[in-house]
Amino acid sequence: MGKPNPQHRRAKKAARRKQRLTSRQTSPERSSRQQTASLAPLPAPGPTLADLGWLPPVSRLVPLETPRTLEQLARRHGMTDDAHVSVDGQWWTPEEFRALKWIDELCDDEADQARDDILAHYGEKIPADLALLDFSARNFIGVTTWNDYCIETEAEHLTALAQTPDLREALGILHREGWITPMADGLLSAPGLFLQPVPPAPSYVRRWPTASHLHARFRLDPLPADEIPTLDELLYACEFQFAFQGLHPVAGTTWTPKQFSRHPWLAAGEGEPDPLMVDEYERILIRYGDHIPADQAVLDLAAVALPYIVTGNFDVLDDEQLVLAFTQTDDLRQAFGTLHRDGLLVPLANGLLLAPGLAKVIDET
Question: Helix, strand, or coil here: 60?
């Protein structure tokens, strides 16, 4: 048999996840006539990444700067089922294990064989967490990270993070180190991990999209002049992984307070706007009045938000220590200001920062 189609696998995973989220509210579907009426004419197709010879966009698992708890992760994704609790340290009898309904729900096929193999391995006393890891290695359905509910996460993300080609070994390593937690409903939760997008890149670019961000050290280096991409190239790459709205430089642009108040970082997400953002917004209004330089405002907010920085080797960083080390300062606001004045940092309207002249590289010193 050929290798399963990744899109087909993701579709099946999404369908299974939807069945488990019965508590979520969904908006009514519009009629097909309404949907058709709202669709704009399709633009003429342009060249694809393959036509251009570019490497495709990817994603990778990285640790959150501020780890979250299992409870916070459950609230974020609406996982309110009483069965969604950790099984670390618990044991199942063979009868309890056979009665688990999620095995049939999450298993593509051969659910009985999966049960029999685990029962044969552990006997009369089954460690719940290890059995769940065994099942996940056999029928991988993803991991719930801070920004992904088991849809986009693939086995390759975990093996790259744990630095081993074996999925079961990777699950064991990440479980022992506290990065993933087996849950009683058959899912794996990773509240301290984030699925980070990495944009496409020209084929000649050297980057490390699959390097482990738990074990490898990185640094920022200047790119040689003949390797610095154009701003248009970086913007084109960003279109594949980031919100298109506001994906343009703001140098020379002035915002009114009303325009600035609509910035996505100041909007309420899951609840109230971030108080730190609100405080910075008020300081910016006091500092600049009715004529706010957009690039400086974005940099001021970025010192609080620490957004993605897309580097000249088409990689992504959100680690303030790399920026501070490169600029040799312990103040992020000052670091951003220095990079901006030196022409090494380009603020975009949506808050993304581009650094065409810098590369994120593995520090092997």
Answer: strand
